[in-house]
Amino acid sequence: MKTITTLLCATVFCTSALWAQNFSGGIRGGGVTSQIDGDGMGGYNKFSPYGGLFVQRAFDSGRWAAQLEINYTGRGARSSDGNVRSSIGYAEIPLIFSQKLFFLPLYAQLGMAAAVKVFENTTTYNVKQESDDYGTWDFPIIAGAEVRIGGRLAADARFMYSMARLNNQFHNNAISFGLSYKIVK
Fold it and tell me: Are 115 and 122 in contact (CB under 8 A)?
C-alpha cells in the first residue's frame, strides 16, 4: 500500500510539474533576401523561402522568452543582372532569446544558429549545375525584432551574419521577414 501511495504521489507531482512549464509552440514561415559577402556580386538580390517549427518558453510574466526552432532556409547570392546565382539550402537550429521592449507588444531578439548545408548549386546564364564551393556548416548570429499580433500571431524581421567563413573568404549575410503562429499556447 505504501508503494502505491508513493507512486501515486510521484505521478501527481510530475504531472503538475509538467503542466507548470508554460511551453508554447507553432509554425514559422517567410522569405529571406541574402548575399554572400566577398563574392563580388553585392546586394541582397537573392530571394528564398524559409519555414519551420518552434517551441518557446516564456519567463518573468512574458517579458523574456527563449525559443528553439528547426527551419529550412535558403541563402545565396544573385548578380544584379540575374545571370549568375548561387543557391544554398540549409537545415538550421536557431536558439533565440527575446526581451519585451517597454509596454508595447514589441520584442528585441538575439541568438545564434547551427546550420548544415542540404544542397548547393550555381546557375550561370540559365545553366544550373550542382556545386560544392562552400562549407557544410554555417553558424550565423541573429538579431531582430518581433511584433506580437494578438495571442497567437507574430511578425518578425531578422538580420543574420555567419560567424564561420563559407570557404575561407566569404560570409553569408541575410535579412528575413516572416510570420509565426502558435498552435500550442
Answer: no
Phi (first) and psi of residue 39, to 5 degrees:
-85, -5
Q: Which three cell numbers stand for residue 122?
A: 550555381
Domain residue spans of the chain: 22-184
pLDDT tens-digit map of 37-96:
777 777 888 899 999 999 999 988 878 999 999 999 999 888 888 888 889 999 999 999
Classify domain 22-184 at the CATH topology level: Porin (2.40.160)
Q: The pTM is what? A: 0.82
The percent of residues above 70 in pLDDT, for the chain, comes to 89
What 3 state SS string does 127-169 have? Answer: EEEECCCCCCEECEEEEEEEEEECCCEEEEEEEEEECCCCCCC
Radius of gyration of the chain (CA): 21
Between CA 175 and CA 143 the distance in angstroms is: 10
Which of 119, 151, 148 lies closest to 134, judged by CA?
119
Measured CA to CA, the distance from residue 45 to residue 25 in angstroms comes to: 32
- Measured between alpha carbons, how far is 136 from 167 in angstroms, rounded to an integer? 10
- Output the pLDDT for position 172: 86
CA-CA distance, 100 to 113, in Å (whole number)? 21
